């Protein structure tokens, strides 16, 4: 008799969204409640992890600036090893797995090892921040282009950001809290006006969310003076002024 083909588990790369369990997709919630192994980021809220199956193993691979619980190569190896052992794995990632989530690298590692992969999208940090702060990332009157960039990438000063921000455009910067001075200097050196409107959105879609506003030239002080911590996004463009319109409308509604 021939040996049966060993079962290989599936790795589900699941977006956990911005943190509010109500903003999970139905597919994400279903997988989480069924999973026996959940490998999760540090930014995933405890309320979401609490939705996991009671018998699930929860493995944290939290990453912080300059401190990684587990190197990315080891995370990929862990996913492959568990799947080849026959386990279905939920790899739970903040936001969306394919937007600055390194989901592409993890999917490649799994496919190279013959492990099936499913990618379950989540609400990205940019979408969540815009919605929660009532700042539209695109607007017929203000912006028909939106760009996402990483603010802590290597060689930041050598990156070409010209044309990413300005009239008719919105620039959303992930992971830019620590490099805000370089970001502001870089954008103004590329010709962006010092008084261009900026919003810093900290802890988007969470109860402790803060939205700070100011001109581009004051971005470093805005972050330092208010002791902004990650997770936080920087949104640059005229669309940020729409928050004032939204808040004014809310105030009128409250008086009626």
Automatic annotation (TrEMBL):
Q: Which family does it belong to?
A: Belongs to the precorrin methyltransferase family.
EC number assigned by the record: 2.1.1.107
Please indicate which superkingdom the organism of origin belongs to.
Bacteria
| EC top class, as a word | transferase
Q: What is this protein's record name?
A: uroporphyrinogen-III C-methyltransferase
Residue ranges occupied by any Tetrapyrrole methylase domain in the UniProt entry: 10-219
Organism of provenance = Croceicoccus ponticola
One biological process term from GO is: methylation
Pfam families in UniProt: TP_methylase
State a single Gene Ontology molecular function.
Answer: uroporphyrin-III C-methyltransferase activity
User: Its pathway?
Assistant: Cofactor biosynthesis; adenosylcobalamin biosynthesis; precorrin-2 from uroporphyrinogen III: step 1/1; Porphyrin-containing compound metabolism; siroheme biosynthesis; precorrin-2 from uroporphyrinogen III: step 1/1
Entry's PROSITE patterns? SUMT_1
SUPFAM superfamilies, per database record: Tetrapyrrole methylase
Q: Which keywords annotate this record?
A: Cobalamin biosynthesis, Methyltransferase, Porphyrin biosynthesis, S-adenosyl-L-methionine, Transferase
């Amino acid at each position: 008799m021939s040996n049966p083909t060993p079962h290989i588990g599936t790795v589900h790369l699941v977006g956990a969204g911005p943190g509010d369990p109500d903003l999970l997709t139905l597919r994400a919630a279903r997988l989480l409640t069924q999973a026996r192994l959940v490998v999760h980021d540090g930014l995933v809220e405890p309320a979401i992890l609490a939705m996991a199956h009671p018998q699930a193993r929860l493995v944290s691979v939290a990453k912080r600036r300059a401190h990684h619980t587990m190197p990315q190569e080891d995370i990929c190896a862990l996913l492959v090893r568990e799947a080849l052992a026959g386990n279905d794995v939920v790899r739970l990632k903040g936001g969306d797995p394919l937007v600055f989530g390194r989901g592409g690298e993890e999917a490649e590692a799994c496919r190279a090892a013959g492990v099936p992969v499913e990618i379950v999208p989540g609400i990205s940090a940019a979408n969540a921040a815009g919605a929660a702060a009532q700042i539209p990332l695109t607007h017929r009157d203000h912006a028909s282009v939106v760009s996402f960039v990483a603010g802590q990438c290597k060689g930041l000063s050598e990156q070409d950001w010209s044309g990413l921000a300005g009239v008719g455009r919105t620039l959303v910067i992930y992971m830019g809290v620590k490099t805000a001075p370089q970001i502001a200097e870089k954008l103004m050196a590329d010709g962006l006006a010092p008084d261009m409107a900026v919003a810093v959105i900290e802890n988007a879609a969470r109860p402790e969310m803060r939205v700070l506003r100011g001109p581009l030239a004051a971005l470093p002080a805005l972050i330092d003076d208010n002791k902004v911590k990650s997770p936080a996004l920087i949104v640059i463009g005229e669309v940020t002024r729409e928050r004032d319109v939204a808040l004014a409308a809310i105030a009128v509604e409250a008086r009626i």
